[in-house]
Amino acid sequence: MTLALGVLVSGNGSNLQAILDAVGSGTLAASVKLVLSNKGDAYALERAERAGVPRRVISHREFASREDFDRAMIAALREAGAEWIVLAGFMRVVTPVFLSAFEHRVLNIHPSLLPSFPGAHAQRQAVQYGVKVTGCTVHFVDQGTDTGPIIAQRAVLVRADDDEAALGERILVEEHRLLVEVLSAIAAGRVEVVRGTEGTRTRVNLRAS
Fold first, then answer.
1. Theoretical Cys-Cys bridge with 162: which of 167, 175, 176, 200, CB 3.0 to 4.6 Å?
2. CA 201, CA 209: separation in Å to the nearest integer?
3. How far is CA 180 from CA 8, 97, 143, 175, in A?
4. Cα–Cα distance measured from residue 93 to residue 90, given in angstroms and rounded to the nearest whole number
5. Which fold has domain 1-103?
6. Which of 1.20.1290.10, 3.40.225.10, 3.10.520.10, 3.40.50.170 is the CATH number of 109-209?
7. Is 141 exposed, middle or buried (0-12, 13-18, 19+ CB in 10 A)?
8. CA-based angle 10:12:15, to the nearest 5?
9. Would you please indicate which residues are annotated as catalytic (active-site) residues?
10. Per-residue pLDDT of the chain (209 residues; tens, 9 = 90+)
11. 105-138: buried (b, 16+ CB within 10 Å) or exposed (e) per residue?
């Protein structure tokens, strides 16, 4: 199938660019229906414009609650025809209102091997803790912070001379690859969500091609 994507962004948008490049080259069976940002100066919006992809700004500051903001985003995404949502550097926590509108169709990419180092500054934490291996994780979003069911991960070795920036750059290269690979697997029908029974977590099976 061809994925109808909505991509939520707040900043530079390099993961968005990886998606746009893969769509443009024909290596990802997807169409980006809307790039939606909560910040009007996000460089990701320029990436969308260059690719001829619809873009829209909805500022969270214009709404009295997170839920009202999410309802506005849902309406815009549905109007654009988006069915799968990718958080690509989107610096807002989505609410259950948003998640229920796109159940098990909201993906995030995080720069660590979850459940290690959730939240902000994961690369900094990896360096500070002195871990030898870190990486990136693509997961479905749930109501926690980087706690949703893991779809796929990619390891990155931590070098002795790494700082946060150097490590972050190498992780980002793998983020771009992994995100496109996961979206391709979803388009090919190779991602299965297995709902947890009482006392067990929901899990994801990623079948080989």
1. 167
2. 25
3. 16, 27, 24, 9
4. 8
5. Rossmann fold (3.40.50)
6. 3.40.50.170
7. buried
8. 95
9. 110
10. 899 999 999 999 999 999 999 999 999 999 999 999 999 999 999 999 999 999 999 999 999 999 999 999 999 999 999 999 999 999 999 999 999 999 999 999 999 999 999 999 999 999 999 999 999 999 999 999 999 999 999 999 999 999 999 999 999 999 999 999 999 999 999 999 998 787 788 899 999 87
11. bbbbbbbbbbebbeeeebbebbbeeeeeebbbbb
The domain ranges of the chain are: 1-103, 109-209
Residue with tokens 């947890």: 196
